[in-house]
Design goal:
Layout (H helix, E strand, L loop, with lengths): L5 E3 L1 E3 L14 H15 L26 E5 L3 E7 L8 E6 L2 E7 L3 E7 L2 E7 L3 E7 L10 E5 L2 E7 L3
Parallel strand pairs: 2-5
Antiparallel strand pairs: 1-10, 3-4, 4-11, 5-6, 6-9, 7-8, 10-11
Amino acid sequence: MVEKAKDVPVTKQEAAPTPAERWDPFASLRDEMQRLFDDFAGRWPMGGFTGRDWPSPMLGWTTADPAIDIVDLDKEIQVRAELPGMEEKDIDVEIADDMLTIRGEKKEERQEGEKEGRYYLSERRYGSFERSLQIPAGAKADKASARFSKGVLTVSFPKTA
C-alpha cells in the first residue's frame, strides 16, 4: 500500500524587531555559550547535554538531531529531514529571519504484561529535537512549502529568477 504524502503547515513570521528594539547586552555571549555547549554535546557517543535539555533516564537522550539533506534542483531547493516514526501532527516547521527551524517531539510508550501465556516488555523511548539552519541563498523563503511522507519531511523553496 502506497502512503500518500501529507502537507505540513509552515509558520511564517514577520521580520524580527530591529536591534534597537530588542537590545540585550548579554545576548551574543549567551548565544556563543549555547553554541559551545551544543558543539560539545554533539561529540558525546549517545547525544549529550546542553544547558537547556538534560537527558532523562526514562526518555533517553533528547539532543538527537534528525539527519538533513539539502538538494539543489532545477527549479527549487529542497531540505529533507529524516523523521522516522513521527507523524505530521508532531512536526513544527517555522521560517523566520532567513532561518528554517524544524521541531518535533515523540512520546514514550511502554507495554508490559502477558501475551499468549508469556511475559513481555516493550519500550519505545522518545524525545524532542529542534534543528535550525539558514535558508540557502537564492531560495524564496516566503513561497516555502512542506510535505511529509514515509518518515521524511521535505521543505521546498522555489528558486529566485
